[in-house]
Each structure stands twice: as structure tokens, then as C-alpha cells.
């Protein structure tokens, strides 16, 4: 048996605060990413509660328009750039090196830099509230509205914050790529990578191609605003649609940046709690890569109503990208099929993901049909769709991942009863908040309005507001659960879930150097192979192996 | 056990279908419909074609929804692990026939949808060479102007209800969308259609209305502080009524306001941006008509402004509205009728956030 014995690192005592502030350990950095993302999630959630409170009553004047516009702009920006992206980067940071049997990331100090940029840029973004108003042109900051004539200093802070945030993403992505390509354990070939690692790999490629495009747009907008440039303002000879092309060339791959690692988490959680391998591993890898490629050809479907888009191309590409996504959905269901499902909180969130993300995915067929999109775009229908993808999809997967990896991260189990309360409230709240928005959009309610007149829109808005507060309430048992768990003595076994991948082959939490010894890697489930030597694949077998004695 | 699960799943599906049908049958009138799974019936030929497409996409999506959610729920109930059962299930790694099937079948469905969508798209985008009526729509922060250039008519909205666009049914109407500031979007839910109003480009399209009535519209592209107030009304009338309306409107435009008595008080007011008037207070004498000499100091191409007085009794009613709007660089004199003593709020109807206090004593 080939095992790799790593030398024991020397340790010496330092203040714990100093230790965390200066650490280059990917696990500590990963935990800090996750913690800071939850903090920003709470902030972004409070902003959302402001929006939902205002919309509960027609013609409401509770929140002045100027503040309302800041609320939804900052809500979107915070949730995307400071919650979902860094959260997934945090999971990738924590789990990916362990999953491939590495001792750390390839560039540990760059890794620390990538993390520390996040709180600094977040502070910059939120400082707008102290300087006469945060950004208020929407998270898309459409020009000319985002130009100096129409938007204040909050917009400049938004630009600078996102430039910094993007730098963090690019550094992080390069670090991930090098780690995956160079630091895999012996035997960990590309087609034995856990699916989560594959999704991190494709996401990192997307980041490297997409984020610099956003950065270029941000720099141009900054020049327009501060030095008299004329890139995006037609009044100065610029082109308003150019901003949208640049922004969405980044912005649509961004959607996949936020959902692919979520797919990865689900593809780890479902097999473990179904006690079966992922159905169709290779198809899954292929689907992930094709989503990554096609993801760069669909950006203008955000712009169908501008009248400045070649519709057939972007309509066809948008329809097409639903095929690999559909393949994944069927593979997940087939993974559960004839399994022995254990409904831990993590598994419940994974099933919640399947149920909700399906709705977000089916919505895509409406948005891809250009004549239908003309009506539903920029209405609450779109708000519903994007939240089914980002909340029903990404956030549910993030919750599944949190319950899954928490014992590994801190060596303590989360309470399952509190977890189930959390899941129930959040799942119900999610459906109540976002499903009615489909119907409101079809009835003609535009997005981003601070008030509405038709009283027939009120009942569903009230339902959505109740849902939003239900989601907020669901966070209380969750935060309490983590708080009490951290105060208990360490109780988590190395492999509490009977899992498949290498992070569970070391202690909980792992030592600074990760592994004392690595099991042999002969498939994408090295730990499963170790626990079930009788089922080990013969070295010559094809990828599709059916357990002898069982029909398909 | 298994049979019970299937029965349970079936009844759930039946419930879902029932809910959809009820939703579909809910009474719907464009403009003020109760939100449900379907948009209000469109009042244009183009909108009706798009809504047929919507229905096709909706039923296909619903079928897939029921199938996949059904499979998920079935798996959840049927394949849950029983206490004490520690045996591993069969380790199935995949199945080429199944995986090919759920790649190829969705591919065929989306290709079919794309073809249908493109056909509808052609109908929606079709234009007639010489449309009998052209309306120029100008969106600006935060109002609309509707120009019937050939008829010599122009309407700019006031307050939060905005202007009314009167259109004949049964004739092609050509729309041209203009903006000089930020992006807006011309959206009438009853048309099942919207098109962005983009500065620096003129978006054009044709619509044919086929049903009389009054329908609401509003800006759908976020455009700043007053975005939610950029509303307007579309009134669809018969061609005969339309001709009569044009004649009447042309007559009304010719009428001149009564001149101010000589020696009346004259107040000066100006505006240089969209956040506030340059003067925040004005004082006038009670019981006497007076004039407001209003200068719009915006740079060329900037937004129009005007001067209006709010009714202290109502939330959004106006006692007086200055007509016409002062375009950028223009000075307009408004003759205001006599007011009773008191404190009034004056506003710019284009920018309802621009207010000031008018003291009459």
C-alpha cells in the first residue's frame, strides 16, 4: 500500500488572535472566508428586510426613495460579491486542498491576501452610507445612471470596492488552478477528482476570464465619472449599451461562478447521504465544462429589451445551456434512486436545493424565448427567477455545505434538531418569498420600484414579506446552533457521515499539515475504497461499474 | 408501502394541476389583473402571438416540473434508509442509455422551443412600410412626453399619473423611443411587451391594438429617484373616436391662457439640477394673481422643469400646474391665479422630489 508520510510541522505558541490574523493555513483562511461571508449575508439580509417592509403596503412612504435605492443596490452587491462568491471561495479554500490530498494551497501567502482584501473592500463599499449615501444605481450600475451627473460618491466607492474584490477573486482563482494542477496526491488523476474540485476548477477558469472584463468596465466608468471620460454616456459621445455588454460579459459567467461550486457541494452531499456514488461522474464533468464554455455565449440575454442585440444567437445559446444543467438534475435524482437516504440537515438542504433550483432552471426557458422575455424582463418575474437560482440554488447548497463540513472545520457536531428547524423555516420562507414574485411580474409589477399603486398587487407582496421574515427567523436557530456547538468540547469523529473523499480521512479538525498518511487513491471515492475493500474496482474496469449481483 | 407512496405522489400531482388550472381560469383584465400564472390577455396582435408562445413554454415547463419534482419526492419517500439498515445499496455508477436519453430528449425540446420562439419573434418584430400613425415617446427623469408630430400634438405627464397616450385600434402604430438622460423602458403589461428607451439610440417598433379600453404602463428600467412614479396611461379608442380626439386636442392646444392684470406681482424662480430648486421659499400676496418667472438653468440637453403648486388638502392633487414645461436654458412665465392666505408646497411636476415652500399672506 502506497502511503505518503508527511513530516510533522513544528509548532510554537502564539496569541490566538495573532495566529488568525497572520495565518497562511488554507483551513483557517477558509474558515475566515466562511465567517466573513455569513456576516455579510446577515447585513445583506437586513437590507432585504428593509425592501420587503416597504413593499408590504401600496404607496408606502416609510423608506424614502433615495434610501430604498441604496437598499436594493447594496443588497444585490453584498449578496453576490460579499456573500455567495467568498462563501464558495471559502469552502473551496477549506475543502479542495484536503480533497486532493494536498498540505495547503499552492501560494499560501497570496491566499491570505485574497481573503484579507474581502473585509477591506466590504468596508469601502459600506462606507458609502457614512459619506452621504451608498451606491444606488442597482447592482448592475447601468450607465448613464451610474455616471457622475446622476449618481453620487457611493458609486465611486462601489467601483473601487468591486475592483478590489475582483482582485481577490483573480488571485484566488489562479491559486486554485495551480493547486489543482500541481498539488494533487499520488493517484489523484483528473478523472478521480471529487466533483466539487472539478466545479472549483471550472469556476476558477471562469473567474480568470470574466473578472478582468468587469475590471476594465469599472475602470472606464471611474474615468467617465472622475476625469471627464466619455465611454458610456451618449451625451458625451459614449455608448450606453457598451456598459451592458461589458458588464454582462462578466455578469453571466458570474452566475455560473456562483452556481457551479454549489452544484459541486450538492454532488458531494447527495452521494454520501444516499450511500451511492454520484450517478454519471464523467457526464457530470463534461456537463460542468460545457456550462463553463457556453456560459460565455449567453450574456446578451440580459439585454433582449434594449433593441441592440442579435436575438437568435443569444436565444439559441441560452436554450442550449439548459441541456447540460438538465443532465445534472437527472444525474442527481438518479444518485438518490435506489439509495438508502439518510436525512441529515445537510441532506435536507440538498433536497431543498433540487426542488428549488429546478424552478429557477425551468424559468430559463421563458427568459430564452425572446418574445416572452420582452414582457417578463425587468419585472418581479426576474427577481423571482434569480432568487430561485441564487437562493434556492447557491444559498441552499451553501447551507448543505455548512452542515456537512462544520464538524470537519471545528471538530464539533451541529445539533440536528436545531438544524431541522433551520431547514424547515428557511425552505418555507424561500418559497413564500420568491414564488409569488413570478405572478407579480406577470401581472406587470416592475422590479426596483420603491412603491406601487395597484392594490391587487398587495396580497402577494404581503406573502413575500412574511416569507422574508421567515427566512430571517430561520437564521436564529442556525446562529445559535453554531454558537453553542463552538462552546462545547470537541466531539466530532474523523468521518461522521461515512463519507467518500479525503478530507474525512484525517482528524476533525485536521492538523496544520492536513494528513499524517494518505490512503491509496484509486477512484473518486478513496475513503470509500478504504472502508469497503471488497467493492474496490478492478484496476482495468471502465468507469461504469455495476455492483455484481444487482440489476441496474 | 410502495403503492401507498405512489398514490400519495399522484394525489399531490393532481393537486398541483388543479392549482394551475384554477390560476389559469382566474378572471383577468389587463391593467389591474389579479396576479396568477398567466398574464392578462394582450390587447395587441403582437402581444397575443407572444402570449401563445408563453402558454406553450408554460405547459412544457409545468410538465417537466411535475415529472422531476415527482421523481425527487418519490425518491425521498421511497428510498429513505430504515433504522438499523446498514447494508450498502447497489453501487450504481451510471447508465449510458439513461444518460444519453436525458441529454438528447431535452436537446430536442429546446431546439423545438427555439424554432417556435424565433417564429413568434419574426411576427413581433414585423413592421409596415408606411404606418398611419407615429408616436414619439420621450422618457426623461422622471416623466414621459408623447409627441404626435404629424398631428402637432405633444403631451408631457404631470404628477405621478403621467400622460395619457390615445391610440386607435385596428391600425398599425409606429413607436419611436427617445431619451436624453438615462435609460428608461416603455412597458405596457397589456401589450405583453416592453422596449428600453436608450439615450443615443432610437428604438422603433410597430404594434396593432385590437381592443378598446384604458391600460396602465410604467417605466421598467430603473432610472433613479422617481423611477416608481414614471407612470402613464394608454387609452385605446375606435378610429372615429381617435379622429375626433385629435381635432379636439388640436383645438385645446391653440387656446391661450388669459393675460395677467398689469401691475401684478412677479416672483423669480430657477432650477439648475434635478435635486432641488435654486430657491426654497417664495412669498406672494393673498387674493391677487401673480406671475412666476421660471428659468431652467440646466445645460443644453438637460431635463425640463416646471413650477406647480400642491393642493394642501390632497396628497398628490395639484392646485396649479405650469404649462408648458421649461426646457433646458428656457425661461417661462407662469400666471398663477389668486390664492388664499396660507402655506403651500410648490414642486416640479417632472421631478416630484424638487419642492419648496410658498407662503401666501
Attribute tags:
heterodimer, A: 552 residues, mainly alpha, 64% helix, disordered C terminus, B: 361 residues, alpha+beta, 5-stranded mixed β-sheet, 4 helices, 29% strand
Quick rundown:
The complex is a heterodimer of chains A (552) and B (361). Chain A is mostly helical.
Describe the protein.
The complex is a heterodimer of chains A (552) and B (361). Chain A has 552 residues and is mostly helical. Chain A has helices at 16-22, 26-55, 65-99, 108-126, 153-182, 195-227, 240-274, 281-294, 311-336, 345-368, 370-376, 380-410, 416-442, 458-487, 526-531. Chain A has 15 helices and no strands. In chain A, helix 6 (195-227) runs parallel beside helix 8 (281-294), helix 7 packs antiparallel against helix 10 and helix 9 packs antiparallel against helix 10. The longest helix of chain A has 35 residues, at 65-99. Chain B has 361 residues and is α+β, with helices and mostly antiparallel strands. Chain B is built from four helices and 18 strands. Chain B starts with a helix and ends with a strand. Chains A and B meet through helix 3, helix 7, helix 8, helix 9 and helix 10 of A and helix 2, helix 3, strand 7 and strand 9 of B.
SSE diagram, text form:
The complex is a heterodimer of chains A (552) and B (361).
Chain A: H1 16-22, H2 26-55, H3 65-99, H4 108-126, H5 153-182, H6 195-227, H7 240-274, H8 281-294, H9 311-336, H10 345-368, H11 370-376, H12 380-410, H13 416-442, H14 458-487, H15 526-531
Chain B: H1 2-25, H2 45-78, H3 96-125, E1 133-140, E2 143-148, E3 153-156, E4 164-168, E5 172-179, E6 184-188, E7 193-197, E8 203-208, E9 213-219, E10 231-237, H4 239-254, E11 265-271, E12 281-284, E13 290-296, E14 308-310, E15 318-321, E16 331-336, E17 342-347, E18 355-360
Parallel strand pairs in B: 1-5, 4-10, 11-13, 12-18
Antiparallel strand pairs in B: 1-2, 2-3, 5-8, 6-7, 6-9, 9-10, 13-16, 14-15, 14-17, 17-18
Helix pairs in contact in B: 1-2, 2-3
Amino acid at each position: 500500500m502506497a502511503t505518503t508520510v508527511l513530516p510533522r510541522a513544528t509548532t510554537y505558541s502564539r496569541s490566538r488572535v495573532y495566529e488568525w490574523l497572520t495565518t497562511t493555513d488554507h483551513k483557517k483562511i477558509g474558515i475566515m472566508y466562511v465567517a466573513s461571508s455569513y456576516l455579510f449575508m446577515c447585513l445583506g439580509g437586513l437590507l432585504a428586510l428593509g425592501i420587503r417592509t416597504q413593499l408590504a403596503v401600496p404607496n408606502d412612504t416609510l423608506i424614502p426613495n433615495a434610501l430604498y435605492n441604496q437598499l436594493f443596490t447594496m443588497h444585490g452587491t453584498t449578496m453576490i460579491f460579499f456573500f455567495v462568491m467568498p462563501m464558495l471561495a471559502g469552502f473551496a479554500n477549506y475543502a479542495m486542498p484536503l480533497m486532493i490530498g494536498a498540505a495547503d494551497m499552492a501560494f499560501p501567502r497570496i491566499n491570505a491576501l485574497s481573503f484579507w482584501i474581502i473585509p477591506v473592500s466590504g468596508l469601502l463599499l459600506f462606507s458609502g452610507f457614512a459619506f452621504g449615501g451608498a451606491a444606488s444605481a442597482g447592482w448592475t450600475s447601468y450607465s448613464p445612471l451610474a455616471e457622475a451627473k446622476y449618481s453620487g460618491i457611493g458609486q465611486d466607492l462601489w467601483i473601487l470596492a468591486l475592483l478590489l474584490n475582483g482582485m481577490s477573486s483573480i488571485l484566488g482563482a489562479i491559486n486554485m488552478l495551480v493547486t489543482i494542477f500541481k498539488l494533487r496526491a499520488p493517484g489523484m488523476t483528473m478523472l478521480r477528482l471529487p466533483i466539487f474540485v472539478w466545479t472549483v476548477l471550472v469556476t476558477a477558469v471562469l473567474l480568470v476570464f470574466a473578472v478582468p472584463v468587469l475590471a476594465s468596465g469599472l475602470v472606464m466608468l471611474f474615468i467617465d465619472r472622475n476625469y471627464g471620460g466619455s465611454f458610456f454616456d451618449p451625451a458625451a459621445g459614449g455608448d450606453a449599451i457598451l456598459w451592458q455588454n461589458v458588464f454582462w460579459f462578466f455578469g453571466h459567467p458570474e452566475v455560473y461562478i456562483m452556481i457551479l461550486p454549489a452544484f459541486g457541494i450538492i454532488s458531494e452531499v447527495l452521494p454520501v447521504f444516499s450511500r451511492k456514488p454520484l450517478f454519471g461522474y464523467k457526464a457530470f464533468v463534461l456537463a460542468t465544462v460545457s456550462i463553463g464554455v457556453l456560459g460565455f455565449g449567453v450574456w446578451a440575454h440580459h439585454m433582449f429589451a434594449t433593441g441592440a442585440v442579435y436575438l437568435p444567437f443569444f436565444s439559441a445559446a441560452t436554450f442550449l445551456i439548459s441541456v447540460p444543467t438538465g443532465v445534472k438534475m437527472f444525474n442527481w435524482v438518479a444518485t438518490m434512486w435506489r439509495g438508502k437516504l439518510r436525512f441529515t440537515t445537510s441532506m435536507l438542504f440538498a433536497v431543498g436545493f433540487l426542488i428549488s433550483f429546478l424552478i429557477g432552471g425551468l424559468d430559463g426557458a421563458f427568459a430564452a424565448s425572446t418574445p416572452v422575455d420582452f414582457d417578463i424582463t425587468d419585472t418581479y418575474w426576474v427577481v423571482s427567477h434569480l432568487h430561485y437560482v441564487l437562493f434556492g440554488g447557491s444559498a441552499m447548497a451553501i447551507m448543505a455545505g455548512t452542515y456537512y463540513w462544520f464538524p470537519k472545520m471545528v471538530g464539533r457536531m451541529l445539533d440536528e434538531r436545531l438544524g431541522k428547524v433551520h431547514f424547515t423555516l428557511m425552505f418555507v420562507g424561500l418559497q413564500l418569498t420568491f414564488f409569488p414574485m413570478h405572478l407579480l411580474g406577470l401581472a406587470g409589477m416592475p422590479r426596483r420600484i420603491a412603491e406601487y399603486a395597484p392594490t391587487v398587487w398587495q396580497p402577494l407582496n404581503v406573502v413575500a414579506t412574511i416569507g422574508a421574515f421567515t427566512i430571517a427567523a430561520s437564521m436564529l436557530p442556525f446562529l445559535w446552533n453554531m454558537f453553542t456547538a463552538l462552546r462545547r468540547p470537541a466531539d466530532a469523529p474523523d468521518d461522521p457521515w461515512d463519507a467518500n473523499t479525503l478530507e474525512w480521512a484525517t482528524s476533525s479538525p485536521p492538523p496544520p499539515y492536513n494528513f499524517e498518511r494518505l490512503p491509496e487513491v484509486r477512484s473518486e471515492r478513496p475513503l470509500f475504497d478504504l472502508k469497503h475493500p471488497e467493492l474496490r474496482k478492478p484496476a482495468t474496469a471502465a468507469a461504469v461499474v455495476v455492483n455484481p449481483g444487482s440489476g441496474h | 408501502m410502495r403503492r401507498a407512496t405512489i398514490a400519495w405522489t399522484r394525489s399531490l400531482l393532481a393537486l398541483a394541476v388543479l392549482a394551475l388550472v384554477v390560476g389559469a381560469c382566474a378572471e383577468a383584465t389587463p391593467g389591474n389583473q389579479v396576479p396568477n400564472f398567466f398574464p392578462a390577455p394582450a390587447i395587441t396582435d403582437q402581444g397575443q402571438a407572444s402570449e401563445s408562445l408563453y402558454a406553450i413554454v408554460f405547459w412544457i415547463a409545468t410538465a417537466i416540473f411535475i415529472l422531476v419534482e415527482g421523481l425527487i419526492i418519490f425518491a425521498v419517500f421511497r428510498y429513505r434508509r430504515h433504522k438499523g439498515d446498514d447494508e450498502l445499496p447497489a453501487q450504481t455508477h451510471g447508465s449510458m442509455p439513461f444518460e444519453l436519453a436525458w441529454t438528447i430528449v431535452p436537446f430536442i425540446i429546446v431546439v423545438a422551443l427555439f424554432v417556435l420562439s424565433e417564429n413568434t419573434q419574426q411576427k413581433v418584430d414585423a413592421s409596415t412600410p408606411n404606418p398611419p400613425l407615429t408616436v414619439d415617446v420621450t422618457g426623461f427623469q422622471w416623466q414621459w412626453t408623447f409627441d404626435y408630430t404629424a398631428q402637432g400634438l405633444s403631451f408631457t405627464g404631470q404628477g405621478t399619473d403621467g400622460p395619457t397616450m390615445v391610440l386607435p385600434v385596428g391600425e398599425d402604430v409606429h413607436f419611436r423611443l427617445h431619451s436624453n438622460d438615462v435609460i428608461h423602458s416603455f412597458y405596457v403589461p397589456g401589450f405583453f411587451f416592453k422596449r428600453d428607451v436608450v439615450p443615443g439610440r432610437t428604438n422603433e417598433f410597430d404594434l396593432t391594438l385590437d381592443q378598446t379600453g384604458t391600460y396602465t404602463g410604467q417605466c421598467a428600467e430603473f432610472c433613479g429617484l422617481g423611477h416608481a412614479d414614471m407612470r402613464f396611461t394608454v387609452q385605446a379608442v375606435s378610429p372615429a373616436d381617435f379622429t375626433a380626439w385629435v381635432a379636439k386636442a388640436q383645438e385645446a392646444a391653440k387656446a391661450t391662457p388669459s393675460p395677467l392684470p398689469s401691475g401684478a406681482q412677479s416672483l423669480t424662480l430657477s432650477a439648475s439640477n434635478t435635486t432641488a430648486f435654486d430657491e426654497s421659499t417664495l412669498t406672494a400676496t393673498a387674493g391677487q394673481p401673480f406671475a412666476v418667472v421660471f428659468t431652467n438653468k440646466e445645460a443644453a440637453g438637460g431635463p425640463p422643469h416646471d413650477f406647480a403648486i400642491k393642493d394642501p388638502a390632497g396628497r398628490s392633487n395639484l392646485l396649479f400646474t405650469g404649462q408648458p414645461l421649461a426646457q433646458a436654458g428656457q425661461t417661462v412665465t407662469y400666471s398663477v391665479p389668486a390664492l388664499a392666505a396660507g402655506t403651500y408646497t410648490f414642486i416640479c411636476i417632472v421631478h416630484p422630489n424638487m419642492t419648496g415652500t410658498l407662503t401666501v399672506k
